[in-house]
Amino acid sequence: MGNQLQTANSTMQKRLALGLSAAILLSGMGMAQQRGGTLTVGLSYDIDTLNVYSTGFLGDVQATVAEGLVAPNEKAEYVPVLATRVPTIQNGGIKVAADNKSMVVTYQLRPGVKWSDGKPFTSADVKFTWETVKDPKFIAESKDGTEDISSISTPNDLTVVVNYKRVAPDFKSTLFTFGILPKHTLEGKDLNTDNYNQMPLGTGPFKVTQYVKGQFVVLDRNPFYWRKDKAGVQLPYLDKMIFKIIPDSNTLVTQLKSGEIQMATSVPYSQIPQLSAQAGLNVIKNPVLSWQHLDFNLKGPAALRDINVRKAVAYGLDRATISKALGGYPIPIDTVVVPVFSYSSKAVPKYAYDPAKAKQLLEAAGYKAGGDGIRAKNGQRLSFNIMAQAGRSTDEDAQQVMIAQMKAIGIELKPDNKAGVALRDARYKGGYDLYYGGWITSADPSYGVFYSTKGVNNGQGYSNPKIDALLATADSSLDPAVRNKALRDFQTLLMQDLPSIPVTSNPSMIVVTDKLGGFVSNPTNMTNFVNTSGWYMKK
177 lies in a domain? Predict the structure, then answer.
């Protein structure tokens, strides 16, 4: 999901940092990077596992340990990490078959890289990662990208040749970006139960030294880390990072103010004014590639399969009021593709706030208001549970606004909020009536994971063969014109079916100590911790 810092000596000097321009201000310009120090980060969710391929949440901690072959930077552009370059057609790293039905991607690996136990990283690890993640016995959060590969060859320790069954324009955003698994420690083991899930081994700047579930993760500097700064100093600069699990946002803010934690990357909007005035802290607005959505469980109550009910909900939502309730930070949207992407469509069916029209739709569909104002048809009341992430005050605040807005048109919504593994399981298995939450994508997203029939994040049970075909086209062409048309047509059809209502695009608010230098925010689902090696504490 997608870091900057600005020195401030008084409240009047505080600035709200935005995007890359803040990176320059916040990097400690003119100050020498200094080794040492500990950074304590507050996480607003409970970690389910430290295995980047198993977790149902953003891999904040995992990104400091596991590295991929490439990764998106602060501009959402892919840059090489364990590979020496990003494969393209122009540099010969991608070769498309004459029939345009398959392709070969070749990675040249960085020499001299070691795992945090000192063993060498090689092409065998890359091939092992594919074989392990695609194994049906391994329970992964997503196996996205594994099924597209027919075979991998490793002609030498530093070359990986990946043979794809199809032309896969999204190859950079799937399998080998999130992290490589160590063959020498995992071969022959059950990755579902192995200790790797609590103490992962990586090539990243830090290594896990202690993990107490529900409380904290301690990471120490990886003594074998491959990256050096321009002066030849081995990175990372920091000695240690500590991630504290703090699901309650009030506690998170209290510890930011007290200095118990020095950083949080998803601070509630309601807390930003007071934190902006706090000496020693800087606030950063990070425009992430995300959107908030209200999903209908199409496997749940029969009324939610009635398009008139779903349209009534859409017309009954006042996105502007929701944004205002959250400090005005969220941007109301009409499509699931955020405006930063060129293929975000303005031609989709729109559902502007119109409570009168919402009532008319429900009335015409036979839903009559009862004595309590809640509508019913054939004895079935329009009364549903609505799930959001427990303790995430931004989402819970928006949820309360929605509950009031739905009551005004005769629909009752009752909070049924969950956290941690319970939220993850309900989200993936459809354990809700309505779900309000957010998705954050890669720099080159595949919307099939959310809206195709077999999409890993499609817990709501939505299925439309035409959508499947459009998303398959978008995911199998390197031609921007073909992809853009398919994605625009997909958006139109999706908003006609309305299995999910896009609500707002929400920037994340990062609060960080003014003693941290080298921090640059990341707008993608690789999180703000995708490159922590250059961070340092100012003395």
Answer: yes
> What CA–CA distance (Å, rounded) separates 124 from 157?
7
473: Cβ contacts below 8 Å, ≥ 6 apart:
482, 483, 486
Going by pLDDT thresholds of 50, 70 and 90, the confidence category of residue 91 is very high
Give the pTM.
0.80
Check whether residue 223 and residue 332 sit in a common domain.
no
Cα distance between residue 424 and residue 38, in whole Å:
31
Instruction: For residues 101 and 218, state if they share a domain.
Output: yes
Are 474 and 447 in contact, with CB atoms under 8 Å apart? yes
3-state secondary structure 281-342: EEEEEECCCEEEEEEECCCCCHHHHCHHHHHHHHHHCCHHHHHHHCCCCCEECCCCCCCCCC
Distance CA 70, CA 444 (A): 13
DSSP letter (8 states) at residue 525: T
CATH number of domain containing 230: 3.40.190.10
Question: pLDDT of 57-69, one tens digit each?
Answer: 889 999 999 999 9
Q: How far apart (Å, rounded) are the C-alpha atoms in residues 338 and 142?
A: 22
Cβ-proximal residues to 157 (8 Å cutoff; 6+ apart), any chain? 109, 120, 122, 123, 124
Assess whether 431 and 470 both reside in one domain. yes
